[in-house]
Predict the structure.
Amino acid sequence: MADVIQYKCPSCGGILEFDPASQKMRCPYCESAFTMQDLQVQDNAQDAYADGAAPVQGAEAMEFAGGDWQAGENDNMRIYGCQSCGAEIVADATTGATSCPYCGNVVVMKGQFSGDLRPDLIIPFKMTKEQAVEKFKKHISSQKYVPSVFTAKGHPEEIKGVYVPFWLFTADAEADVVYNAQRVRSWSDSNYNYTETEHYRVRRAGTVRMEHVPVDGSTKMADDLSESIEPFDTKDAVPFQTAYLAGYLADRYDVDYTQCKDRAQQRMRVTAEKSMRSTVKGYTGVTVAATHVTWNRAQVSYALFPVWMLSTTWEGQNYLFAMNGQSGKFVGNLPLDKKGFGRARIKMGLIFAAAIFVLLTIFEVFAL
């Protein structure tokens, strides 16, 4: 789910856009600024956690704790489909065509938006488009073995501000972990060297509260890419309002929260195990013998997180970059200058060979 809807300026009638710097809606024509409260149109989203949504017992009973769209709230939303990668983007009804933030190809209108769940929370953009471009330039200029022509290009061909759908999972993880541990002690006397190894069975059990563990709800946003730009600080999340989407695109979720449950539980399991392991101290070595984790008070809510998607092409291949629109964390793959990389490998090989030759020469001298 997602959207980009238009709000008209009360002063001049121009189309307002959300300004990450001021966190207000701003008119590019008369420069008037308005808070979200000024433009609120009966779309108060219920914060599932602040309002204490009823907990659900057990991982299998995990349920969505969100609300529905209010009458007329999503009437101006339209779905735009990419014929290349299959992405579905939600934008306002006046958008005739735009480009896909994932592959850069043109997307065209498919039809009226309807049926998806309404987000509970949204983290508004805090980083501007200019900051995203600057991060892109720094990223490519700081990397080794990037073709000089690509670096000289210095700017992305496409840049889109996209709200990416995330499912946020909250649960109590009841962890019970058993470890095999050792203490090793060594000493010597005038005749012998001694080593004593003591073996222990260590158990740790407890409850770890997991809040807002994110799993992206879009197949077009690869898990490794979305997790690379984490974390998103949900302390900045606010109840969803369509006004935050003005001037941006939004990815329509195509992975239901029930399909994300296993991924969320795996992430929570790893965190719970790390929490238990941090309490096992004073041993020379520790290995996990058995782990058992169960879930209680499981909840899931739906949120939109801000991401700047940048793309550019090089020798017929598209390169995609992403920047966390809240923190500015930047990731992306770059083309490899094969000739430069090959020369560097040869150089390193020569240096290594020279070092080996010097060591062998010194060894022979001492041997004599």
